[in-house]
């Protein structure tokens, strides 16, 4: 993950927070300057050294003779944060704070706190939060947003709420941004009820961003698969004059499908389609992502017929399936043994000019190898090569060992030579091509009898058993008549 070099302007940063359910990107990036000053290089070498413990680190820092400035401290942390252990970074920052005293600015404390939050180091965060409060320093709203998010992720939601309630002690205002930040953080981990409490107490501060707040609350209840509460939030949203957007409805459909996946698989399609009808009544039209949520859950329960019907209904309703839609349907077809139909779906996708990414082929080839249909996997690989996607190495690494362990060393060697000619470096060992080294495993699982065959004819053994049971019933009936 790459982060940005400098802090975003407040307005842009707040907009990004309010438009997203959670803070997904960090504020900083480690981009070393083209020419590193010698004093910065020396500090980085001391901090990132693996020799000695924390006391040895402090002894080495005491020998640093150049002028120490707040900007140099921040640069050293930024340059070594990915290499140095957080405990060494913490000791370095505390040493700098002690030596520079009040020359360290609030922004330096905030930056260090954000680095430790990114690293999810609760102890370091706790120490710096305490120092901020003790020294009467200012906590930026951006810093609070990130700290609240990480604390909730770490299961410390009580502490996140505690900091929020006492933001005045950190000279940080309780405003639209900070209220939204704590609500987003709580909802991201399913603490929707506590988030609603924050909304109730601070509604006057978030009037301008209520659609985003409702969106977060719907997400928070969906994390718990609580369809009833998620629907209640959407109803409240409508009552307040806000039309739920596509994100709200997609979140509700995911919540509904995941609940039905566990408790009522037969209700997956009808209940999801009912929500889509409701969406259309508000001029919010489902897109391929909406349908893919349903297709994903149908695939998990191996509901083949419904998956194919949903794919067909997408085309009929004017919502063009994307490659993910075709992937989800082809996957469930292959897993359930409908290889011919699965190949048709893939051909249909290619015929419509859709170009999938590598995952489409990687996953389906892996599925076919897993169900012992290597020939079908080879055919799919040819289609992949025909699309000129590239990235064939992982497929060769799957197919070559699979072919050789199945006894087809000739085809395995052919693929090896093909990959070598293309300049592809394979991860699998060449020893797999040697029959004296590679153990051949023949599939022992018998072929499954098709449903059509099993409904027409029974095995001779079952016929004999049922015939024997009928004879016994007739014999016992005749014995009863004689006794009478």
One letter per element, helices H and strands E, the order comes to HHHHHHHHHHHHHHHHHHHHHHHHH
Instruction: Provide the gyration radius in Å.
Output: 31 Å
Q: Ranges with pLDDT <50 over ≥5 residues?
A: 1-33, 449-460
Global morphology: flat
Mean pLDDT: 86
Keywords: Repeat
GO molecular function: mRNA binding
Organism: Crotalaria pallida (Smooth rattlebox)
Pfam family, one: PPR
Report on this model:
This protein has 484 residues and is an all-alpha fold. It contains 25 helices and no strands. It has helices at residues 10-18, 38-48, 54-62, 70-80, 86-100, 106-118, 122-134, 141-153, 157-165, 176-188, 192-201, 210-223, 227-239, 246-263, 268-281, 288-300, 304-316, 323-335, 339-351, 358-370, 374-386, 393-405, 409-421, 451-456, 460-483. The longest helix has 24 residues, at 460-483. The radius of gyration is 31 Å and the shape is flat. It starts with 9 loop residues before the first helix and ends with a helix. The relative contact order is 0.04. The model is unreliable at 1-33 and 449-460 (pLDDT under 50). It comes from Crotalaria pallida. Belongs to the PPR family. P subfamily. Keywords: Repeat. Residues 461-484 have a biased composition (Basic residues). PPR repeats lie at residues 210-244, 287-321.
